[in-house]
Amino acid sequence: MTILIKNGSVVSPVGIINADVLIDGERIVAVLAPGDNSLGAGLVGSVDHVIDAAGKYVIPGGVDCHTHMEMPFGGTAVSDTFETGTRAAAWGGTTTIIDFSVQTYGSRVQDSLQTWFEKAAGNCHIDYGFHQIIGGVDDDSLKAMDELVEEGITSFKLFMAYPGVFLSDDGQIVRAMQTAANNGAMIMMHAENGTAIDVLVSQALAAGKTDPKYHSLTRPWQTESEATNRAVMLAHMTGAPLYVVHMSAKQAVEVVQRARDGGQNVFGETCPQYLYLSLEDQLMQPGFEGAKWVCSTPLRSKAEGHQDELWRYLRTNDLSVVSTDHCPFCFKEQKELGVDNFSKIPNGIGSVEHRMDLIYQGVVDGQISVERWVELCSTTPARMFGLYPRKGVIAPGSDADIVIYDPVGRTEIGFHKTHHMNMDHSAWEGFVIDGHVDAVLSRGKVVVEDNEYKGVKGHGQYLKRGLSQYLI
Ligand code: DUC
Ligand code: ZN
Ligand code: ZN
Question: What is the β-pairing status of strands 62-67 and 57-60?
Fold first, then answer.
């Protein structure tokens, strides 16, 4: 099957060119400037399918490098399976996810990975890779880190939060970082001071403060900033590269900025919820509504001015990636686990379907350029996690993962509008985006066209990843 995408504006981080994109099978074979007849003037007549992209952006498919499908968490399990979550991702122009295999204390890393391979195999609509969560650093899991790098799992997430569940103490973090410094892997860090937070949580509950808003108020910015600083220092000491996930506090990103200015391999990630949602507007909604937006790190106070600073840090590259941290739970029976106690509300928001649109709104609002949108949502995550140039770029030889994006389209987000995630509500209800995903190709297969879904479960393949391209 050959496909020609004609007359579009092809976007990369370094510019926009008018070009036609020729696809043969699963790969891009040529990017042709207008009038380039090097492949024959009759090309249009000889391809199987022509897509007219006049007036549209032609962008590399989104790479969401932080999702959780079928993950047991918070006394329940996230509501999207690999099947439902990857289908929703495709609807929204994301053509690759990197999910997390989860090892907990006392279990073997390899067993957890096997479990996650089984969950995903044959069920995904788009391509997928894995990071590995190390919930119990010991001799066995450190050895496993070396083995996994050989198998294409080149990044490991540690937690400074959730004592007794996932938390690694500083000594464990040092040992894991030493291992990464040695084998070339990336350390991903959930940087919140979990023991300090647990004290604040107990005190709040003892004072009868049980509403969802206390989730944020018991995780003040200092807990994120302190942990980020500690992680940066330990990474400096051990020589490990560090990628700080889901950053929401401007003071924490300032720590990342300082480390980067000092020449350290430290990277920051944020998510759409921290750019648009807040303590005041969402978590403080009446009754138990705010539970929909309980996630960690938490939504922060609008009055503290985090959002504008996060957008600024996206421009300065002190935040290098926008992922979703897609971690969906239904309101009924899942979020409701914490109806009398905010600390029992499962932490997570579902956004895998909406990231490309939500961050495109940043282009419309003048926060970032079109090129930066593509860089943050596709190219950098692919390069950061060893998938480039197979993913993240429109170039000969790359997978034909392509989105045709209409810059003057309109997308109304809402549970009864555009919503394919397996949730009973949308955290983005009522958001209207000045742009629209018109068509999506995954490895040369049209999976979304004319507001119709054409993909199939099982099309998505496992991606064995290389080392990060940002490490020298
Ligand atoms: N951290 C994540 O990365 N995802 C879900 C919850 C959390 O604490
Ligand atoms: Zn986390
Ligand atoms: Zn996460």
Answer: unpaired
